Amino acid sequence: MLAQFRGEVIVISGPSGAGKTSIARRIVAELPQVAFSVSATTRSPRPGEVDGVDYFFCTPGRFDRMIEQGELLEWATYAGHRYGTPQAAVLRQVEQGIDVILVIEIQGAAIIKAKMPSAVRIFILPPGPAELQARIDRRGGIEPADLAVRLCQARVELARARDYDYVVVNDQLEEAVTKVTAIMTAERCRVTRQVGLLG
Asked: CB atoms < 10 A from the CB of 135, how many?
């Protein structure tokens, strides 16, 4: 009998509008041994969001304690609220042989890589700056000043793509999903992932 695979942390990053969340959602829906990491946040739930499913909603005080007690793999502040990756759930799923996808920004990705050197980092690129801007525009409800900030941040993030293990251009969603899935499949074939298989 073959030994069980050890799961791995898969970090997916990219600029706003690159399609990283869409890719991750498709992979989680299609592959049984893959899960999303549910983040903790200090913001209030939006209509339809479920605690423990969409986010772990907590008070600022609780979030402070999570930081102090080392319960978060990484955390950051965005739009006045804090977001972080709970450590216990990620480690538990990895031990169960489940690959855990974290869709996080470049700062969080660097922290994860420092704490978990075996984490696989995939950077999602848009096909070009014009398409990136068009995708952000299509979301609607974005003020011109906010659009300018997002595009400026995208340039900063794109400059960090070389820090990642893999780069995937998301021109067509289906093709991008196929490529990311192929990367994850290849990573499962690494000798270090075959716990006990080689004796």
From this structure: 17
